[in-house]
Design brief:
With about 100 residues, the chain is mostly loops. It is about 5% helix and about 0% strand.
Length: about 100
């Protein structure tokens, strides 16, 4: 960096006391410091795909083949092809028992 300027002269001494303090030196200039502490920021990352990219595959098959074979008791089946849909089921059984 550059050197500061020279300080000013002290005030003249009088019979009553000391002379005044000298003035401050000139301001220093430093181009090396400015160059070392400034610079460009880092490079940003790549942007995303404008079409959203590849989200992979999704199997939306809806088959109940073979699901009812060899079933015993009361069987209930629900099949719905809608995405994010719910099916409510209710079963009523009438059992007549003879107690001896």
């Amino acid at each position: 960096g550059g050197t500061g300027g020279t300080s000013g002269d002290g005030g003249a001494a009088t019979a009553n006391g000391d002379g005044g303090d000298g003035g401050l030196g000139g301001s220093a200039s430093s181009e090396a410091m400015a160059t070392a502490t400034t610079g460009n920021g880092g490079v940003g990352g790549n942007g995303g795909d404008s079409l959203g990219g590849n989200a992979g595959t999704f199997d939306a098959s809806n088959s109940i083949d073979g699901s009812l074979s060899n079933g015993a008791g009361i069987i209930t089946v629900s099949q719905n092809s809608g995405m994010n849909s719910l099916t409510q089921q209710g079963i009523t059984v009438q059992a007549n028992l003879t107690v001896q």
